[in-house]
Design goal:
Layout lengths: L5 H26 L12 E7 L1 H4 L7 H9 L3 E7 L17 H8 L4 E5 L13 H16 L6 E5 L19 H15 L2 E3 L1 H5 L14 H16 L1
Parallel strand pairs: 1-2, 1-3, 3-4, 4-5
Helix pairs in contact: 3-8, 5-6
């Protein structure tokens, strides 16, 4: 009987682990398409546009999946969140360069939920409220030009609960100016404004790292959007 040396056994074990990990990643990638959700012809289509707070790790774990369940039959909420992306075209990672952006437009949604701005607070992205407003508005108008859109909900970014700020990190001090701009844009365009900054201000427990929602946090965000849509 052939014996496997410790060295070869270790190599085989590593190879098996890599294969297993690659397969898992493949499963995640397959599940990471917003279009996996079955949509009926008469469903009210909702595009959830955002960053990692919307995306989470797969569309099945973010608030849009929970919102979809709560709205129930007749609705289809699709997750177009993209981790690390910002509203501004001048940012390091502009949302408009993503596949999710293109897919969200191709959906021809009836309702658009837009919750961006957290990554715009970074020092390398933030050039003041006026610049943010200009580029945020440019992105918004791409959705307003769609004939299918009947409602747009502009949500300010959730409160950020970070204590240690470093170069390139999200800056909690810029959340409030962004909140004000989002509200101002909503008023100017006659759109719905959802103050997610205020709604989350007393709930650091909803965010496991100060930015991204816990399971409970995702439930709470979904509930806030649910109440807005159903009002």
């Amino acid at each position: 009987m052939r014996r496997i040396s410790i060295k070869n056994w270790f190599g085989l074990s590593i190879s098996f682990f890599i294969l297993l990990f690659s397969s898992a990643c493949g499963m995640i990638d397959q599940n990471n398409s917003a279009t996996d959700l079955e949509i009926e012809e008469d469903d009210i289509r909702i595009a959830a546009v955002g960053d990692s707070i919307t995306a989470e790790y797969t569309p099945q774990s973010g608030y849009p999946a929970i919102l979809n369940e709560r709205l129930g039959e007749g609705y289809a909420v699709l997750n177009f969140g993209e981790s690390n992306y910002a509203a501004q075209a001048s940012s390091d990672f502009p949302y408009e360069t993503t596949g999710s952006y293109e897919e969200s437009l191709e959906l021809n949604p009836d309702i658009v939920i837009m919750m961006l701005g957290t990554n715009d607070t970074k020092a390398n992205n933030w050039n003041g409220p006026e610049r943010f407003k200009e580029e945020y508005t440019d992105l918004l108008e791409d959705y307003l030009e769609l004939e299918s859109v009947s409602r747009v909900i502009l949500a300010s970014p959730p409160t950020v609960f970070l204590e240690n700020i470093f170069e390139g990190s999200i800056d909690p001090e810029n959340i409030e100016p962004i909140r004000d701009v989002v509200e101002e844009v909503a008023e100017e365009y006659g759109l719905e404004f959802l103050d997610m900054t205020e709604q989350t201000a007393a709930h650091p427990d909803w965010f496991f790292d100060g930015v991204h929602p816990t399971a409970e946090g995702a439930e709470q965000l979904a509930q806030i959007f649910y109440e807005q849509i159903e009002e």
